[in-house]
Structure formats: structure tokens, C-alpha cells
């Protein structure tokens, strides 16, 4: 009887709000929606005639975002401007730099990026990167943006893997992990970075995700211990099983929303992120059930 | 089994139960630890091993991730961590990175340093090191000024010849 260790992110909420919105189904429609939105966006303030400081720019754009109903107006403007200044957060920029005048080039950059945010593009896609634990990942639509709660999932997995390999010389070597639905590679790469002896098989049904995970892995120097496959656990279970041997752990942050809730998502999500990464079917459990069915076949006896 | 492993497995069993329920924003890892097992953090880059140990029971963390539906259904970018130490009232705010996890850890490191100063006052190694660094900088400045002065005098004697 295999004692599998299966980690699934299970935060599920039924969304009972009733917002009417543009429903997006399918990746092709998503692409058309992005370009349409970038053309439709009016309301971008003109570039300032005089030079302004970073703080003034942040204030100006915060106000603009508020006027346009963009969520997290203050955070959005601050992250974007910090990024243009080469930092992760405004709080980590030297105070003197915040009151210096921005160069023309940097001002234009701020304007270009903030204008993207006006069309409700998530900040992570606007600046094309975000942090996940101690990694900085490259991000682009429609590949799913890692959620902060998933950082805790990784922490749990690490604790378990370390405990299992604990006593015994060199026992940490030779552990393998399978990730279903790797997206940008957040979970797999975090595990690889923290456990130098770990090897990971990462799967995703989306070629975009497979490509992005590969890119992030190479940038982080973790490509050699990672094998990435484009595979859909729902459709080709057999190929999945043939690819992955006996793993110590199976990890996933699978789609789990109820299909009926897909229509009430905020624009940041329905306009830009792959709905296939979110929709878990009528009860939200389609993918989860399939993963649990495959788990005993993928995991080793101690997995 | 070593105490650390026992602790980790207890956290895990608590966490597993909590992970299955709908999260109301409360992180499983921040539930009160069982009594008698304080949360011991790695000392961090300063390699100070005698900073006070934090007891999660005494800490209050503001969930700036926001209320309401969480998980996949939203895209929240606010991840500033505000940590309060209830007995002393000391508050630490950390928004150094864009990772909640890292900000939480750094906030705790900073809290340990602040508590060290609070409890040990002048004797706190934090303050001692700060003083040493200030003194070193003053010494350096003094030496540079001396050197510049000597150069100036030398140039003067040269121009006199």
C-alpha cells in the first residue's frame, strides 16, 4: 500500500458575487482581447512637460488608477516605479533617489508600463517578473501567476522532503519530485533551489507554460536537474506515467475553481490568465481527482 | 527523533488539517505552536546566535494579503508584512521584497534584533556593532583628512622652492 505524499493547494471559495463581465474562453480569444484593450485604453495622462520625481510619478499614477477603478492603485504604481528604478519595492529604494528627478527615458518607461496597468493587466505581467520565495521569475500572459499562498505549500513540501531524507549519509540524493501544472515553474524551481540533490519532473498541458518554466530554469541555473514535459493529465495519463518513475513526492497547485465561478473573476484574471489554469469543472475537482488517481502509480512506496 | 523534527511534524499535522479547510486568510504556519516548542529561527547573515527566540504566541501579524476570497481567484500584490510583539508593543514593518514568505522571515529577523536591543539595552550586540561601525568610519575619515593635510603641506613646500 503506497503511502503517497500528495500536496495540493486546496484554497477553494465559492464566489457568490454577481458581476457581469466579458467572459473569455480559450487562449485565442485572450490574445485578441489583450490587443483590443491596449488600443481601447484612453485615459493615460500625457507625459509631463517638466521633469518629475519618482514620488511625484507614483502619486500621479495612483490617482489615475483610482479614477479608472484599477484595483490596488497605490501598490500598482509603487511596484512599477520601483521596477523602473531597478528595485523590487519602493521601500527598498534609497530615500534620496525617490526625490531625484527621473530621466526622460525612465519617465517614458514609467508611462509605458503604467498605461498597461490601466487595462487591468496584472502588475506581474506589466513588469514581466515577480518574486516567489527567494526566486525572481520571468512572467508573461497567459501563463498563470504564482499566488502567495503557494509559497506556504512549498515550505510544507520542503519540510517533509528534508525529514524523509534526514538520517543517513547522502540520503538526500536521489529524491525526485513530480509537479503537475508547473506554470511558470515557481514550485519546481523553488524546490530545486532549496534542495541541491533533488530532481524534478514538471508537467503542464500548455506549451507556453513549458517554455516559460524552461526559461526560468535556465536563468536560475537549475535546468540540469529539471525535466519538463508538455502533457495533459486529463487526456494522456499513460504518457505521464511512462515519463515519471517512482517519485518521493507529487506536488500541484491545480485548477480548482468551480466552473460557475469563472464568470465572476476580476478583469486581471479573466482578461490575461489562462482559464484552463483555473477551471476545475463543476465541482472544481476534475483535475484534483485525476491527480489523486495517478498519484499511487507515480509515487514510490515511501512517497 | 530530534526536537526539531518533532516540531516540524507537529506543524505539518496542524497545517494539513488547516490546508483542507477553506483558508480565511490565516496561514497554517502561523497557528500557535504547541507549548514548550518555541519557534527558533536561523540567525541570518549577521550570524548572531544569542538573539532572543521568538514565541509565535506573542506575535500578531497583520494579514495585508487582504480579506475576502483568496487563492487562485484573485491577484493580490500587496505583501507588506506588519508584525507586532504583543508584550512589548514593538512593531516591525517589512516590505523589502515581493514575496510574502521572505518578508515574513525578514520581519522576524528584524524583530529579534529589536527585542535584543529592548532587553539588553546598551549591552545588545546590535548596538555594540553599530557603535563599532560608526567609530571605524570616524577613524577612517580622520585618517583620510590627515593624509590630505600632509599632501597639501608637501605641495606647499614644493611650490615654495
UniProtKB/TrEMBL annotation, chain A:
Q: What is its EC number?
A: 2.1.1.297
InterPro entries per the UniProt record, alphabetical? DNA_methylase_N6_adenine_CS (IPR002052), HemK-like (IPR004556), N5-glutamine_MTase (IPR050320), PrmC_N (IPR040758), SAM-dependent_MTases_sf (IPR029063), Small_mtfrase_dom (IPR007848)
* Example of a GO biological process term: methylation
Release factor glutamine methyltransferase N-terminal domain: which residues? 60-127
Q: In what residue span(s) does the Methyltransferase small domain sit?
A: 174-256
Extract one GO cellular component term from the record: mitochondrion
Keyword vocabulary terms for this entry: Methyltransferase, S-adenosyl-L-methionine, Transferase
Transferase found in the keyword field: yes
**What domain of life does the native source organism fall in?**
Eukaryota
- For this protein, what reaction is catalysed? L-glutaminyl-[peptide chain release factor] + S-adenosyl-L-methionine = N(5)-methyl-L-glutaminyl-[peptide chain release factor] + S-adenosyl-L-homocysteine + H(+)
Give GO MF terms, alphabetically. Answer: nucleic acid binding; peptide chain release factor N(5)-glutamine methyltransferase activity
Matching entries from SUPFAM superfamilies are given as:
S-adenosyl-L-methionine-dependent methyltransferases
**Could you tell me which NCBIfam families the record lists for this protein?**
hemK_fam
This protein is called peptide chain release factor N(5)-glutamine methyltransferase
Tell me what organism the protein belongs to: Kryptolebias marmoratus
Automatic annotation (TrEMBL), chain B:
Give the Prokaryotic-type class I peptide chain release factors domain ranges.
54-145
The listed locations are: Mitochondrion
Citing just one GO molecular function, the answer is: translation release factor activity
What Pfam families does the entry give?
Answer: RF-1 (PF00472)
Keywords, comma-separated and alphabetical: Mitochondrion, Transit peptide
The protein's superkingdom reads Eukaryota
Protein family: Belongs to the prokaryotic/mitochondrial release factor family.
Q: Which PANTHER family match?
A: MITOCHONDRIAL TRANSLATION RELEASE FACTOR IN RESCUE (PTHR46203:SF1), PROBABLE PEPTIDE CHAIN RELEASE FACTOR C12ORF65 (PTHR46203)
**What name appears for this protein in its UniProt entry?**
Mitochondrial translation release factor in rescue
What is the originating organism of this protein? Kryptolebias marmoratus
Amino acid at each position: 500500500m503506497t503511502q503517497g505524499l500528495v500536496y495540493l493547494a486546496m484554497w477553494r471559495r465559492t464566489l457568490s458575487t454577481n458581476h457581469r463581465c466579458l467572459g473569455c474562453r480559450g487562449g485565442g480569444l485572450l490574445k485578441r482581447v489583450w490587443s483590443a484593450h491596449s488600443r481601447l485604453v484612453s485615459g493615460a495622462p500625457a507625459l509631463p512637460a517638466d521633469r518629475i520625481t519618482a514620488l511625484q510619478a507614483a502619486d500621479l499614477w495612483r490617482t489615475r488608477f483610482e479614477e479608472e477603478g484599477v484595483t490596488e492603485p497605490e501598490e500598482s504604481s509603487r511596484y512599477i516605479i520601483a521596477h523602473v528604478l531597478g528595485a523590487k519595492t519602493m521601500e527598498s529604494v534609497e530615500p534620496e533617489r525617490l526625490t531625484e528627478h527621473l530621466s526622460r527615458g525612465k519617465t517614458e518607461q514609467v508611462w509605458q508600463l503604467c498605461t498597461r496597468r490601466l487595462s487591468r493587466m496584472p502588475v506581474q505581467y506589466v513588469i514581466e517578473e515577480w518574486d516567489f520565495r527567494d526566486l525572481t521569475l520571468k512572467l508573461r500572459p497567459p501563463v498563470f501567476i504564482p499566488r502567495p499562498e503557494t509559497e506556504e505549500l512549498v515550505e510544507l513540501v520542503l519540510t517533509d522532503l528534508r525529514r524523509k531524507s534526514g538520517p543517513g549519509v547522502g540520503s538526500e540524493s536521489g529524491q525526485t519530485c513530480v509537479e503537475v501544472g508547473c506554470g511558470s515553474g515557481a514550485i519546481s524551481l523553488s524546490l530545486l533551489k532549496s534542495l541541491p540533490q533533488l530532481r524534478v519532473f514538471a508537467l503542464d498541458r500548455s506549451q507556453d507554460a513549458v517554455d516559460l518554466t524552461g526559461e526560468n530554469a535556465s536563468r536560475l541555473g537549475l535546468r540540469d536537474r529539471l525535466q519538463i514535459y508538455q502533457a495533459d493529465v486529463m487526456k494522456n495519463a499513460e504518457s505521464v506515467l511512462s515519463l515519471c518513475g517512482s517519485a518521493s513526492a507529487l506536488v500541484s497547485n491545480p485548477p480548482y475553481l468551480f466552473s460557475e465561478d469563472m464568470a465572476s473573476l476580476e478583469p486581471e484574471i479573466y482578461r490575461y490568465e489562462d482559464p484552463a489554469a483555473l477551471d476545475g469543472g463543476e465541482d472544481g475537482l476534475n483535475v484534483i481527482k485525476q491527480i489523486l488517481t495517478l498519484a499511487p502509480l507515480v509515487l514510490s512506496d515511501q512517497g | 527523533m530530534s526536537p526539531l523534527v518533532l516540531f516540524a511534524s507537529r506543524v505539518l499535522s496542524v497545517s494539513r488539517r488547516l490546508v483542507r479547510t477553506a483558508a480565511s486568510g490565516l496561514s497554517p504556519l502561523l497557528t500557535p505552536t504547541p507549548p514548550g516548542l518555541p519557534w527558533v529561527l536561523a540567525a541570518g547573515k549577521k550570524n548572531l546566535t544569542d538573539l532572543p527566540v521568538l514565541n509565535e504566541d506573542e506575535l500578531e501579524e497583520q494579514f495585508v494579503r487582504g480579506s475576502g476570497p483568496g487563492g487562485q481567484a484573485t491577484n493580490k500584490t500587496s505583501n507588506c508584512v506588519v508584525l507586532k510583539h504583543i508584550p512589548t508593543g514593538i512593531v516591525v514593518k517589512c516590505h523589502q521584497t515581493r514575496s510574502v514568505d521572505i518578508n515574513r522571515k525578514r520581519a522576524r529577523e528584524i524583530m529579534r534584533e529589536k527585542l535584543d536591543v529592548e532587553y539588553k539595552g546598551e549591552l545588545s550586540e546590535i548596538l555594540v556593532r553599530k557603535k563599532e561601525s560608526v567609530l571605524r568610519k570616524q577613524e577612517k575619515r580622520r585618517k583620510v583628512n590627515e593624509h590630505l593635510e600632509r599632501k597639501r603641506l608637501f605641495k606647499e613646500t614644493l611650490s615654495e622652492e
